[in-house]
Amino acid sequence: MGFPAFFDEVRRIVVRDPLAEFLGAAEGGLIEYGYLDAVKLAGHSCPTVAAAYWMTLKALAHLYPDSLPERGGIRVDFRQDHLSGVTGVIANVVSLLTGATHDTGFKGLGGRFDRRRLLYFSADVAEEIRYTRIDSGQAVEVAANLQSVPFAPQTPELMQKCLAGSATPQETAEFRECWQARVRTLLLAHGDDPEVFVLRPVA
Asked: Residue 122: which domain range?
């Protein structure tokens, strides 16, 4: 099994999951996630998956500047409906990293570790997503301006050829390289670009 080498260059995150600690699934409840985990969850690597992963990392770094993020201790509100555009894809990645679910998550043990009612859609938030710490109420909103990092000009034509089954092996390889090149640029060249990834603390 092989994946693009740049996946390993993308910043990883360690979270503490009290449920994992309680059940002995991870020593100290510590779980490390990387971009490859988001790719495996989604089944593909694209700007949307990359943005979902990176927005969550940035939000959690802001909310937990001096400690590890607590998986299961974060509420997430999406501005869009769950069926709108790629919101569902983003929500799946966000749920992976935060543990937050709407009503399909773990129901808890003895009144603890409930992962439901932590993820909402069609919320009244200014940016794309709002992350809120349950313990302190501190919140931050984030958004990704993906149009600021365009594909190579030949990508749409190559994609159409690949979809139509008329692409040569060389064109297929070029399309795949162009597609992942945009993801790489988004994460590694623009990950800390405030024009691409907007982060707005909530007063």
From this structure: 11-144+193-202
Q: In this structure, is residue 102 part of a structural domain?
A: yes
Task: Report if residue 70 sits inside a domain.
Answer: yes
CB–CB of 18/72 below 8 Å? Answer: yes
pLDDT tens readout for residues 48-100: 999 999 999 999 999 999 999 999 999 999 999 999 999 999 999 999 999 99
- The answer to whether residue 6 sits within a structural domain is no
Q: Answer yes or no: pTM beyond 0.90.
A: yes
Quick check: is 160 in a domain? no
Tens digits of per-residue pLDDT, 132-176? 999 999 999 999 999 999 999 999 999 999 999 999 999 999 999
Instruction: Specify the number of domains making up the chain.
Output: 1
List the CATH number of the domain containing 59.
3.30.1330.20
Q: What pLDDT was estimated at residue 46?
A: 98
Which of 104, 103, 187, 177 has its CA nearest to residue 149? 187
Residue 178 has pLDDT above 90, yes or no: yes
